[in-house]
Amino acid sequence: MNFTETCSNFIEGIKGTTPLEFVAVVFGIISVLYSRKENILVYPTGIVSTVLYIYLCFAGKLYAEASVNFYYTVMSVIGWVMWSRKKDGDAALHITKSSRREWAFSLLFFVGCWAILFLVLKHFTDSIVPLADGFAAASAYTGMWLMAKKKLENWIWWIITNVASIPLYYIKGYSFTSFQFLVLLGLAIAGLITWSKKVKHEAN
């Protein structure tokens, strides 16, 4: 398939977007915009998107991604509580960088999730993309966990997730969602820059 055919198929896919997918995409983008601003509304808006994507992913046989969205929903509730906590009238949780130990744990967490998801998808589901589905899901698991803790590096994992998800959702026929991940990739890069500036400012 050449570039022209790919673009044509992508446009046709966008035109065929269902109302459910459209709402999920819009709320997903809104959620990331709130995350970049360190606004707690990241969680309620995100929950709307992730609940819808649980259904969409099962329908598209992206089982690991469905599990990710379930995980997102649970972690959104946890993150909502953690971000809501106050200490002396101020937010108890502030943006921080991961230590070497935390980085090592994050990498082990990612690799472990990827291995488990791949094996489950390979042997217990009819997924045709177990390696890619597992990879995108594992990086997302890691990113969401770090976001709940307000770790700067959550954006790095979101960048990885978005890059992996663009082709994954496209080949499954979710063209608008694929486009969403392209937008989210730009927002994740912007988020990394914004949070990096905040960390640097607070350190001074």
Produce the secondary structure layout.
Elements: H1 3-15, H2 19-36, H3 42-59, H4 63-84, E1 86-87, E2 90-91, H5 100-124, H6 130-148, H7 154-171, H8 175-203
Antiparallel strand pairs: 1-2
Helix pairs in contact: 2-3, 2-8, 3-4, 4-6, 5-6, 6-7, 7-8
Organism: Pinibacter aurantiacus
Pfam families: NMN_transporter
Function: Required for nicotinamide riboside transport across the inner membrane.
Describe the structure concisely.
This protein is mainly α. It is 79% helix and 2% strand. The chain has eight helices and two strands; from the N terminus they run H-H-H-H-E-E-H-H-H-H.
Helix fraction bin = over 70%
The secondary-structure class comes to mainly alpha
Give the overall shape, derived from the CA principal axes: globular
The biggest sheet, with number of strands, parallel, antiparallel or mixed sense and barrel status, is: 2 strands, antiparallel
Ends distance: 53 Å
Could you give the count of β-strands?
A: 2
Q: Which spans of ≥5 residues are poorly predicted at pLDDT below 50?
A: none
| Strand line-up across the major sheet | 1-2
So how many helices? 8
**Rg, Å, rounded:** 17 Å
Number of folding domains? 1
What is the averaged pLDDT score?
Answer: 88
Query: What's the SSE pattern?
Result: HHHHEEHHHH
Beta content comes to under 5%
Family: Belongs to the nicotinamide ribonucleoside (NR) uptake permease (TC 4.B.1) family.
Function: Required for nicotinamide riboside transport across the inner membrane.
Membrane topology: Multi-pass membrane protein
Subcellular location: Cell membrane
